[in-house]
Amino acid sequence: MFNMMKILTSPLIMFTLIASLFLTGCGGSSSSNGGANGFSRESVVNTNAVSLPIDIAFVPGMGSAFVVISQTGFVYFFNGSLDSVNTVDLGSVLPVVSGGEQGLLNVEFHPDFTTNNYVFFYHTSVTSRVNSVSRMTVAFDGSGNMVLSDLVKIIDFRKPSTASNHNGGGLVFAPDATLLASVGDGGGASNSANAQLSTSLLGSVIRVSPSLIAGSGGYSIPAGNMFTSTNSQCSNVDLSAAACPEILAMGLRNPFRMSRAGNIVYLGDVGSGNEEIDSFDYTTSTANFGWPTHDGYVASFTIPGYRNPIIYYNRDDAIADAFRAEDPEGVKTGDASIMIGDVYGGARYGGALNNKLFFAEFYDGFIRAVGVDNNGDITDIDGVPGMHITHHGQVTSMVEGPDGYIYITTLFGPAMVYRLIGL
Predict the structure, then answer these.
(1) DSSP structure class, residue 238
(2) How far apart are CA 126 and CA 67, in angstroms?
(3) In whole angstroms, what is the distance from residue 402 CA to residue 135 CA?
(4) The domain that contains 294 carries what CATH number?
(5) Please, what is the Cα angle at 307 between 341 and 290, to 5 degrees?
(6) Which residue segment(s) compose the domain that 396 sits in?
(7) 138 with 116: CB under 8 angstroms?
(8) What total number of domains does the chain contain?
(9) DSSP 3-state assignment of 254?
(10) What is the pLDDT of residues 120-168, one digit of tens each?
(11) 228 — phi, psi (to 5°)?
């Protein structure tokens, strides 16, 4: 993912943070030059309502109500107001280690939420050692405030060697209600090899059937993963004696963001030299994205099941230069960290964004959308994938809301939740 200490000490970002102090957004419009494509954005929460927003999810069955999670372990619940209706501090019940690339990283409601009231969190639970997926139960008190209880652990991803970075953090539910999580390689030179080990959960996409029993955590192994389902489970295991039955795909460095459209899963893998957007069909179980053997596109490979990225760039190449050139506010920072969002399926924007996958560069600030087909391949053939949408640095999530708008969270400059408007 990003490095928070690098952000805080970067002159460019410090300028952005200082400039943000002069903004007076109280909801309303905070527009951005979207260039010739005509998009802009407006804030949907008050400027000071959230701190370090890292993900957003809409509450099923509640219309426009949504939660925003903070990297530091807070859940902000909004229901028809620009101000936070209530703030839940998970730190008192859910272990959240925050700082750098660690913290509360993702939130996902269960597909049957209106029946079971379950919400899932991806979080760092032990400093530089363990990331976890946990489940909680949502209720609302007499004042309409969100109450979270019944904490259970679903799965742990343990690092053989301690490192605070490359934690991954994506959560999506598949059409069959199995849970997918995208897991980083663990960070540090000694952990990168885990991404090609069948005996480690690191550097992979895992797929499990999480427990839905009240008060009971854990998971079972669904049919169709990469390795036999009868092998011992690998939760909280440094290295297993047998191939981990949870693994669905492997060969990833730091897939911080993941999304799904139909059976196709999309991954934004933060690379060493190349930023990648990868895709695969979750009903197959052979996808290997090559890390650390491969980084970016390769013409020749010997890894079984290898899949090249559908988009790749590094901070200095012609593709990144072209992305910045199409961005009226484009600036080259010297750093790179890919963020992906949803594939748009709504009825807004005059059809201009239909079947387009959102992606953004955390540091350079361009936000783009690229056409994708039912196989997870891009449909653009002009050499500069996608179209420029708008500009904002430090984007952490881009999610389609039930009203058909795309919602964007930004960690800094300022910390905000936006709605994409235009056309």
Answers:
(1) S
(2) 24
(3) 23
(4) 2.120.10.30
(5) 95
(6) 4-422
(7) no
(8) 1
(9) coil
(10) 999 999 999 999 999 999 999 999 999 999 999 999 999 999 999 999 9
(11) -60, 135
